[in-house]
Amino acid sequence: MAEELKVIVFTLAHEEYGIEVDKVRTIERMVPITRVPKTPAFVKGVINLRGIVIPVIDLRGRFGLAETEITENSRIIIVAANDLEVGFIVDSANDVMDVMSDAIENPPEVLGGIKAKYISGVAKIGDSRLLILLNLVEVLSRNEIIQLEQFGE
Amino acid sequence: MEMNQYMSIFIDESNDHLQSLNENMLRLEQQPEDIGIVQIIFRSAHTLKGMSATMGFEDLAALTHEMENVLDLVRNSKLSMNGQIFDTLFKCLDALEAMVQDIINGGTGKGDVADLVERLKAIVKGDVNGSGVVKATVPAAGLSASLVLDQYQLSILSQSLESGHNAYYIEVKVREDCLLKAARAYMVFDVLERNGEVVKAYPSVQEIEQEQFDRSFSVYYITQAEEGLLRDQISRVSEIESAILNAVDRASLEELGRSQGEAEKAVEAAIKESAATVAISTPPPVSLVSAADSNATRPAATNAGNAAPRTIRVDIERLDSLMNLFSELLIDRVRLEQLASEVRRNDLTETVEHMARVSADLQNIVLKLRMVPVESVFNRFPRMVRDLAKSLDKKVDLVIVGAETELDRTVIDEIGDPLVHLIRNAVDHGIESITERVKLGKPEVGTVHLRAFHSGNHVFIEIEEDGKGINRPKVLETAIKRGVITDEEAKNLTDDEVNMLIFAAGFSTADKVSDISGRGVGLDVVKSKISSLGGHVAVHSTLGAGTKFSIQLPLTLSIIAAMLIKLGSEKYAFPLSSIVETGSVKRSEIRTLHGNRIIDYRQSIIPVVSLAALVQSPDYRDDEEAETEMLVVRKGDKLAAILVDEFIGQSEIVLKPLGKYLAGSLDVVSGATILGDGQVALIVDPNALIK
């Protein structure tokens, strides 16, 4: 029996991505971000989310895609995983979708230029839509931040 | 019975009692003759026993029970305290503490107490290393506490002994399957009455007649008959299992007289104890003196009401959430103040000003709620120093001053370990051995002073001993050997700088490694811990006269006064506590020395740090300006000038963590705060600016 999975759908460089709904705290419009010095370029800084200071990263930068200007549609998705709370800047976020677990396939090696380890699967929706499901544990892994810091030094 | 709801009370109370046990044991060790202290200890142990038994922690109860037995002998002057007993009792306290700790951590509170219980039992039996400390043991006849003679009965016994009668203590046991106990007992009494006189019976004759006894009863008996004859006659009564006759002589009679007095004292103590127990709503266990039971309850009711508590216990989480809510309010207040100054309406401004005053008072109270006397950390040290001194064969006095000084709870939680380190260090490395001290003409007993006091926005904790002091050449030699500094550097160091070397990682001057300190991992940990709390540590030492460690700590870690500054489009906050002065400096006054930028500041030369360069400011560079604002900050006795763009002003800010994701990757920034306009500003760690 296939299970139903609720995901938040967002776009990044014209691709559609999904994050399981229970990992998402809120979705916010862009707010002023305070830059934090000596962090990797994709760490945009910190924001004030109703009294709590939360780090924000640009998901394009995180995946090695070209970063673009912030637009009207840009959103910050606050996710919570690995005991961390982090905001993701995405191009737009506007949908919640049910995905059947039997429609999810293992990711191909490279997808839209993103390393496979950041992806937990690809869901086929209808005939032509593909939804890339993120592996949050890897995306939020701090190992790369630490490596980047060492590289920077 | 559902116990969970009592668990936290049990834990709190047991900790209190353990603490009081520890403290009073230490006091008793100083004044072993003071029976008043023994009484206090006894009461604590007794309450603890009752509580643990009620909660079902049997090992705890068993151990405290045995301790109580020993203490009981002591307070009745049957046993005098000696080193052996102290050590055993302290070991018991350790075991109790371990068990309570286990309970706190969700364990079952089980512990292997058999060994300790045995040792305590041996003490009670008077078997203290065969030294026979016990002044008098209970007569071998095993006179039970249940059979207490009053003065009148005692005098009858002694008079009849004088007139040549025999006195016996007789214990009669009826058979288990005996159907008519009262009848059999009556027959025994009949035999006895025919030959002599029963002075006292337990249970009382009436009770025996009404069959209100278990299987045995005992009597004091005066007779002229032979012991053998008596025994023979009693055992002829059927269904009697045994009759034990013990002759009572003059010596044991005196003993009885004494235990008589004790029994009264015990009743008194039991009354007080039950008063204490009533107050914490744990029913007292069956009292130690059965005769006291009926009397104990009545006065307890009258005693219980006299000490209404002035404090309440509050869950720490509630305080934390109160603090968080208040921080939110503070942020809104700053925002309101800003809005009011923009709107410029008098009544609005007045209201906001009033609110600001109220919230300032509120802030004081909220912060005070979180303040805890440093006593809660200090109170474990007397015991620690005692044990240490003992194991090192030294004599050390610990003098604590200012234990009532209050510190934020967060600081209190963290400061314990560093202090333990420093005190161990003082006793182990600082204070000399007794022979050495005598040779140097110093008093045999070394002194360690532990002081805490307020000064400005800081709390100082000092640890000072009158030991050997820091040996400069030895420190330098080790530092060079360990590669902490080079030969060249060593020559130019001041005494205080040399002293600070002992805080360097991997440094230890102890010639031999002891299990107390001297692994060389201690002091650098101490230093980093203290700096992580926003404080710092300094050392002053005089060779041969002693060393003083002085720790400076911030009063609180959650709300601080800060100077807000602007750097192009960005805002940063500096903790006010580290700022010495604000001012401005002309481009031309900044000189270069060995590639480092410096300025003259009040007859000394201090380094210049560009904040813009340090944080890689995207839109501000200080080298484009002819005159720059500067902050002079201090770390210990080092100063540095920080170049900034513009001062915004002083403000109370609420410290917020930056989030785990960024934790550990920052050195310049120590945290964040939310400004009145809702934006996040980063807090600069001045300690990171001064190398």
Automatic annotation (TrEMBL), chain A:
It is found in: Cytoplasm. Keywords: Chemotaxis, Cytoplasm. GO terms for biological process: chemotaxis; signal transduction. Residues 4-145 form the CheW-like domain. It comes from the Bacteria. The keyword Ribonucleoprotein does not apply. PANTHER family: CHEMOTAXIS PROTEIN CHEW, CHEMOTAXIS SENSOR HISTIDINE KINASE-RELATED. This is Chemotaxis protein CheW.
Automatic annotation (TrEMBL), chain B:
Keywords: ATP-binding, Chemotaxis, Kinase, Nucleotide-binding, Phosphoprotein, Transferase, Two-component regulatory system. Residues 559-691 form the CheW-like domain. SMART domains: CheW (SM00260), H-kinase_dim (SM01231), HATPase_c (SM00387), HPT (SM00073). Residues 1-103 form the HPt domain. It holds the Pfam family CheW. GO terms for biological process: chemotaxis. It is an enzyme of class 2 (transferase). One of its GO terms (cellular component) is cytoplasm. CDD domains: CheA_reg (cd00731), HATPase_CheA-like (cd16916), HPT (cd00088). The keyword ATP-binding applies. It catalyses: ATP + protein L-histidine = ADP + protein N-phospho-L-histidine. Its EC number is 2.7.13.3. One of its GO terms (molecular function) is phosphorelay sensor kinase activity. The modification Phosphohistidine is found at residue 46. InterPro entries: Bact_Chemotaxis_CheA, CheA-like_dim, CheA-like_homodim_sf, CheA-like_P2_sf, CheA_P2-bd, CheW-like_dom_sf, CheW-lke_dom, CheY-binding_CheA. Residues 307-557 form the Histidine kinase domain. SUPFAM superfamilies: ATPase domain of HSP90 chaperone/DNA topoisomerase II/histidine kinase (SSF55874), CheW-like (SSF50341), CheY-binding domain of CheA (SSF55052), Histidine-containing phosphotransfer domain, HPT domain (SSF47226), Homodimeric domain of signal transducing histidine kinase (SSF47384). Coiled coil: none annotated. This is Chemotaxis protein CheA. It comes from Cohnella luojiensis. The lineage of its organism: Bacteria, Bacillati, Bacillota, Bacilli, Bacillales.
